[in-house]
Design a protein that fits this description.
- The chain is mainly alpha-helical.
- It has one domain.
- It is 39% helix and 0% strand.
- The longest helix has 10 residues.
């Protein structure tokens, strides 16, 4: 998620968070590969409205 190619997607999600409610999930099958804190931190760094 932290690659440059994902940056526009994260920026879009952050902008959309101000007018729409949605959840971002993780689809890794192995729980040890899931990073909830990253899924929260990256949009937050871009100004997302979090609940």
């Amino acid at each position: 998620m932290t690659t440059l190619e994902n940056s526009p997607v994260l920026d879009l999600l952050a902008a959309m968070s101000h007018t729409a409610g949605f959840a971002i999930g993780c689809c890794f099958a192995k729980e040890t590969h899931r990073h909830r804190s990253v899924s929260r931190r990256l949009p937050e760094e871009r100004g997302a409205k979090l609940s």
